[in-house]
Amino acid sequence: MKRCIDLASKGLGYTYPNPLVGSVIVHDNKIIGEGYHAKYGESHAEVNAINSVGNKELLRESTLYVNLEPCNHHGKTPPCTEAIINNNIKRVVIGSRDPNRLVDGSGIDKLRSSGCHVVVGVMELECSNLNKRFFKYHKNKRPYIILKWAESKDGFISPLKSNTSPRKVNWISGENSKKLNHKWRSEEHSILVGVQTIIDDDPLLTTRFFDGKNPIRFVLDPNSRIPIDSKVLSQTSKTIILSKKENNLIPNYTKSSNFENIQKIIESLYDMKIQSVLIEGGTKTINHFLNNDLWDSIRVFKSSKNITDGIKSPDIDFSKFSKSEIGDDILYEINR
């Protein structure tokens, strides 16, 4: 099962809206096949594992391990339960049950009714944690929410605008932290900032410092103040503006009008099938989520630099956070 988890992790950032799944096939205590779900729309882990076995006759005497309950419905691909049953695999070991209402036990029932011996709950906590985004979306009807920011040693999230160059990112954290943050972006379904961050810094919000998939970009812009030449409106990734107003001057403008409060924003993301969101906005945007207790993970880079004066960072107690060194910065992190 640990090998299933390791394999499944390779698909992080590429399988949305599908979960992360790895599968291993064992015969006489030896692994004879393995696979994982690499990309949305492509074959699932169980099918890839079965296809990797050279001698299919061994499958009837083998055990298939998988970290998540096999699907039992037609989507982009046929049900994995069919592949298991059609190949006469008689023993299946599952890490965690799938909370998706399209599965939610039906895969287990289908296998058992076909004569398979099914074991459920092996390394269940680790398997559920692997798919924490998928589980949060299906169980809590909202995306998995990560709050991230960088702050100076003296507690500022950015210098005062009068002391900065117009529309230019003022980096507080170091190069190692920057690369790690871009890796995090590649792992999440979406990224969200407030429009003031776009006006002040003009960020691109991509994974250009890490070889990974760009997240969907969201901008909280209730009054449609976003400049039409903003980098976030580039074609490098999809951008959705959460606004109350239309803006016909912006090409390929995608608008969501359901903007009343933070809960409505979360509902909009859920309705758009967004499973995870990395909040990289300024203090005001981050405080919206903190004050409404809407977060699952907080990650803060604490720089060794002092700014002396600027915009204060969110007021947070780091006493229960884990600490690690990232270059010259300290990363504070906490997960629920």
Describe the fold and architecture.
Strand 4, helix 4 and strand 5 (117-120) form a beta-alpha-beta unit. Helix content is 25%, strand content 24%. The chain is built from 10 helices and 16 strands. The two termini are 24 Å apart. The model has no long low-confidence stretch (mean pLDDT 90). It has a 9-stranded mixed β-sheet, with helices on both faces. Strands 2-1-3-4-5 form a 5-stranded mixed β-sheet. It has helices at 2-9, 45-51, 80-86, 106-113, 124-130, 132-140, 175-187, 195-201, 262-271, 283-291; strands at residues 22-27, 30-36, 63-68, 91-96, 117-120, 144-151, 156-159, 190-194, 216-220, 239-242, 255-256, 276-279, 297-302, 310-312, 322-326, 329-335. It is an alpha/beta fold.
